[in-house]
Each structure stands twice: as structure tokens, then as C-alpha cells.
Amino acid sequence: MLETRKVNFYYGDFHALKEINIKIPANSVTAFIGPSGCGKSTFLRLFNRMNDLIPDTRLTGECLIRGENIYHKSVDVSVLRKKTGMVFQKPNPFPKTIFENVAYGLRVDGISNRSFIADRVEQSLKSAALWDEVKDKLKKSAFELSGGQQQRLCIARALAISPSVILMDEPASALDPISTSKIEDLIHTLKKDYTIVIVTHNMQQAARISDKTGFFMLGELIEYDDTKKIFLNPSKEETQNYITGRFG
Amino acid sequence: MRRAIEKVVEGLLTVSGATTSAIILLIVVFLFKEGAGFFRHSNVENGYSLCVSGKNPVYRLSSDEIKKIFDYEIVSWDEVGGESIEIVPFRMGNIMERYSEEELGEDYINLPAKIIEVTKEIPGIILFLPLQYIPDDVSVKKIEDSRIDVSDFFAGTDWIPTATPSPQFGLLPLLLGTLWVGLFAIIIALPLGLGVAIYMAELATPRIRNVLKPMIELLAGIPSVVYGFFGLVVLVPFIQRTLNLPVGETAFAGSIVLAIMSLPTIITVAEDAMRNTPQTVREASLGLGASHWQTIYRVIIPYSLSGISAAVVLGIGRAVGETMAVLMVTGNAAVIPQTLFEPVRTIPATIAAELGEAPAGGAHYNALFVLGCILFIITVVVSISAELISKKRVDS
Q: Is 0.85 exceeded by the ipTM?
């Protein structure tokens, strides 16, 4: 589903990602773990070309979704981004109503069929396990929701554009434990329809929700394997040290 | 020791905060107190009075009626509730023409007697006299002093504070002049200002921005009299020539100068607001496939709306309160504006131009304070409404 071949990424002179090769299967949850500044977020943001927004960056190698090189000249970035939903570290709803937040991706796509939009909003909110909590206040500002609800709203917003891939950049790090467990349950149910890649600082979380885990350190992908193997029997010493808490 | 210093600093800060608030409050109280004094003044010039014949049933005249009588616009007493007799207005000058200096005597000692005489001769007479010469006689009746009427002030269409016998303090030409110039200034400045703000916040490369931003901030530091000078020397003749007007000093010239003056404020504040939009919100929009432009008008502008309305308010505040530049280019004719291309006079320009010649404590002096109050109220209303707008938009 997602694949990179010899990817190198530079912020100016800083070599942020080094020779990364990975193959991520469809309809699975893949977690990236590693110490701060190891490049896992940068790597995640390659898949919807979010790093394009940062000036003075450079990429070599190939980055593919379903076998298509997404950095090819012929690729329309906004079409690519419609296929990859993204959820950020902090809930970041738009200054709009709950309904309009979820409908946003459809509206910018030029869709104006009201019943279609209403159906899709309802469906997305249900998939994000938020519908029952907000169905009576769709016209209220998104800022009236709690942090956990806002984050699920952001997930619903990403689902509304029917992406095939969902990229999550530490989606639960700013939330309380109850909201976190709701998000984790949600990730579990979403897995059957979407390919999910999640960056997390929380190793228990990675162990709980992911099928595969990649361990990053200093811009290198040290180890990438089934989650069970990584946590129970890692083949590299650095991985072993990190997950047992000896550093990082 | 450190604890004590902290206490002292805390105390100092509290005191300075309290004093500042108290001073602001005192200024406002002073302004309104002086303004309220205006409505206690008589509608006839101080030290003078109007007299009519003792048989005349009219005992009270509004300032508008007095003005029309002395302008020969009202010619018969029946128009103001009296009998059908022709009105003959008499000022001191008319008395002097009628009687020689000898007849009036030294220090006008015979003047009261002569007034009785002339009043008997001309039954429709109305005299405008200094108080000390009014004779104490049944044949001469003083028109009752009436105070300046609130409605005369707010609905009055003439601003002639030096008119005799009854100065005209009509707010409308000044108020409309102010709003007229301010409104068009904002209409010109807002699209330009927001356009530049969007360009600088979202589109300009850092290099262009680093040049543009200090330049625009520099514009804000230029004294307003310089803008006025520029307007007078460049803009006014240009407008006069291109539009073929009798005078170039028009509301239009004022609006343009004001628009240029309020641009730096609008641009700086709006741009800061837009740049304060969190990067992740921007990325969320782009991540959903929105184009840069869609992100700007669907997310960044709504996100920074309170900052943008602050920019608008500051712009309007500048436009409504600005004095010097407007005074120099608008022509200062206190008439109700019909088009953009005629001279107008604004409230602040009136205060600046007339305060020097208004005797302290007189009706004119207090009238200028009322204008100040009105300016104050306009600014308060504008900021409150902007506050409400921005709040409402965030809530919905």
C-alpha cells in the first residue's frame, strides 16, 4: 500500500531521514516509535506531501502509494491529499460549526449536493464514534466540544473525504486517558476500512493498537516488523534498549 | 528582603493602573460635564436680549425663528404665533442710523427713552439690544430667555456659531460630514488594506515581506500634518483638474488622505492576526485537499476575524478622529454633504479650528465640548459593535 525506496530527506543541511525503505500493508495499523527528533513525524508527513510547505527542504528516493510515485511531477498535490486524511497532535478544528468542519473537505472539492453532504457528515461522525454526542448540536461551534471530542471531530473530518490512508501524528498525546482510550478503540475499528499510520511517543499505545511497528532513531529506520516481534523479541540492540526504557 | 521588594513593585503597579484608569475616567467626566453645560446656555448671545412691543402677544422664540426673522425669511408676526403685523428687526446699528449722537447723549444715556419711542412708533419691531439699555417700561417687553433646545442641536442643519442674535448650533452638517468622510475612507482603505495584509501574510516571500513590512510601519509614523500637506499640494489640485470641479478641497480628497493614513494600521493588525493562525490549522485545511486560496478564505480569514475586525475598528477610529489632515483638505464648509465632491467639515476639524476663537465658558465653547462627547460616543459604539461582531462569528 505505502512504500518508500531509499528515501532521504533534508531540512537545509540537516539530513533528517536516511535511506529509508519500508512497505506498509493495506488495512493495517502501523506505528512509528522512537525518541524525539528521530524523524518519525517527518517521515509520516512525506505521504501527503505536507513537508512541501516547509521552505528549504529536499527529498531523494521514491515514495509510493499503491505503486504510484507521489512526488512525480504529474501528481496533483490536492488530489493526493484528498486520498490521505491527516490527524494532528493537537485537536485543530476550524472556526466553524461541527457540521461545517466535517463537510469542509467536500466543500473545497466543489461538492454542493446538500443531501449527499449531510449523509456523508453523519456517516463520518458515526465512524468517528462522535455522532451520538453531537447529533443535536451540529450547528454549534466546534470549539464548544471537549478536547477529546474535538480530536474525534478531526478524525471525522479526515474520514469525510473517503481517504484510503489515514496519517496520525501523535493523535492522543494531548488528551486525557479516557479520551485516549476512545481514540484507540476508534483506530481499532477503522482499521478494516483504512490503512492507518500512527506516530506515537507512547510505547504501550503502539503495542496495544498496531499490527506493525517501525523504530526510528537519528533519521534511520532501525527496525520494522510485526509489533509482537518488536516488543517481545527485537532483533536490534537499539530497539531492545529503547523499549526497555534504557534511553530515549 | 526580596519579598518586600516584590510587595513594593506590586503596590506600584496597582497604583499606576488605578491612577491611569482614574485619569481616563476623569477626562470623560470632564468632557461630558462641559458638554452638558451647553444646554444651559440661552439661545441668544450672552449679555444681549430681544425686545418687542408691549402689545405683542409673542413672548418666546426659538433660535431658528430668531435667525429667520433677522434674515428676513419670516416677515410677519402671525408666522410665529402673533398678529398679522410686519416684523421690523432692529439692531444697535439701526438705532444709530435713526438717531444722531447728540440725541442719544453721552454714553447713550438717552437710549432707553429712544427705544420706548421707536417701539411705540413701529408696533412690529423686534430689537436686539445689550441688556443694560433695555428700558423698564410696559411698552417694551423682553422676549423670555429660552435655553438651547436639545432637538435644535441634534436636528439642526446649520452650524453658524458666530451668528447674531442667535448663534446656530446644528450638529447635522458636522456629524454627516464626519461619517461621510469616514465611511468613504473605510470603503477605500478596507479592501486595499486587507488585500495587502493577505498578500504579506500568505503570499509574499519572506524577502519581500521583510522589505514591505518596515516600510508600511514607517507610514504609520508620519505625522498627520504631512499627509495633509501632501493632500493639499498633490491630491486637491489633481482632483480639481481631473474631475473639473470648482474646488478640489472635497470630502473625496479627505477620504483618500484618511484611507492612506489608516492603511498602515489596518495592514499591520490584520496581517498579525492572519499570521497568528496556527500552522496546524493551515495544514489541516491543506491536508483535506484545499488549495492555498481556499485555505485563506475559508479558514485563515475566519480564524483571524477578531483581529481583522480590530483592524477595521482601529481604521475607523483613526478615520473618524483624525483632525489635521482632514482640516487641510476637506474645505471645511459646514453644509450637509450631498455628494462626495463638495467641501464638508468634520467634527474634529471643527473643534480644532474653532476652539481658539470660542470664549471659554460661552455657548460656543461648550458646544465644541458636546462635539467632543459625540466623537467619543461614536468611537465607543464602533468598538462595541466590532467586539460583538467578532464574538458572534466565533460562537457560530
A: yes
